[in-house]
Amino acid sequence: MNKVVPKDEEYIYEGRVAISQTDIDGTITFVNRKFSEISGYTIKELVGSNHDIIRHPNVLQGIFDKMWVSLKNGQVWNGMLKNLRKDGQFYWVDMEIAPIFDKEEQITGYISVSKPAARKNIIENEKLLENSN
Questions:
Q1: Over the stretch 34-62, which tens digit does the pLDDT of each residue have?
Q2: Residue 9 maps to a domain
Q3: Whole-prediction pTM
């Protein structure tokens, strides 16, 4: 797929939760319809792609570093992320990601549940991003 060029245009995420599941390498193995809708990609385009397909370039690497440390240690991570749609618009999510374990307690993948972020939290996070750039 072609690299998406970010626009300074927000897509307002409303409604139900968006769910995605990945293997341990971040390859998407499942998404629900809401995830497909808010990302702008079809389910077929998403499944088999790396979850980075929706990663917005303005999000600080440190956020992802902390997230991966938590997840690889078997812990749940939650926070807000700015994501990138297929059409270049951005959207904010309040999400929780949890590791998936097999019978031997080994991590086999991850599941994320996202909901619309509160407007006041979006404003706070946008200010943080502006100050870090």
A1: 999 999 999 999 999 999 999 999 888 89
A2: no
A3: 0.91
